[in-house]
Amino acid sequence: MEDPVNEIPKVIHLLTQSPxxxxxxxxxxxxxxxxxxxxxxxxTGSYDLTEYFRNGRLEGSLAAVGMxxxxxxxxxxxxxxxxxxxxxxxxxxxxxxxxxxxAYDEKNMTLYVGLHQLFRIPYxxxxxxxxKLVTVLDLVPRPSTSxxxxxxxxxxxxxxxxxxxxxxxxxxxxxxxxxxxxxxGLLIWQxxxxxxxxxxxxxxxxxxxxxxGNIGMHAERxxxxxxxxxxx
Length: 232
Hints:
The model has no long low-confidence stretch (mean pLDDT 84). Helix 1 (4-17) packs antiparallel against helix 2 (20-30) and helix 2 (20-30) packs antiparallel against helix 6. It is built from eleven helices and five strands, in the order ααβααααβββαβαααα. The protein has helices at residues 4-17, 20-30, 50-53, 56-64, 68-74, 77-91, 146-151, 169-173, 181-203, 205-214, 223-231, and strands at residues 31-38, 96-105, 110-120, 128-141, 158-166. The protein has 232 residues and is α+β, with helices and mostly antiparallel strands.
């Protein structure tokens, strides 16, 4: 990707709403071989044993028993991601997904993508999960190739080295709680926890007074003073 902010929505749609061969091509093009995938349900870790498995004798032996395709899937964490995305499409062949926002931390080369999707499993009645999540994508500069050098290209392109899908707990529950019983229970618990914190801080207010007087707060400071120090 030369322009991560504008290109990442297209990449996400390719991974989630395209046929298997386009899914695979998108992974090969936009992810590093050792890219890692983290999700509440699964994770791949990070590894790349492609060169090891390309040993001529080993590759030939596996091809002879019809396992070459399986070898390609397990030889790198990117290959495992391909299997995860294919399973994702098998469970929900039609996924409604929209990217809501994209923020790019250029200094740390990290993309934050807010999106929502409707995940349906047609084989199970009433199984539908409208969820929101934030996907955190770490980027790395792509090594230049001989083709880039011959064309005199000086633009930096980026590959995805890590994908981390972050869900609020209630969004996560929607995947396996079609009646929203757990979601309602979590909602009640969250309000109860809020009430307990309000009561707790009122009862233990002397601790706050002690912190104000004894932990480096002898001099009065304003919020503006603190923010001005950070900007400097």
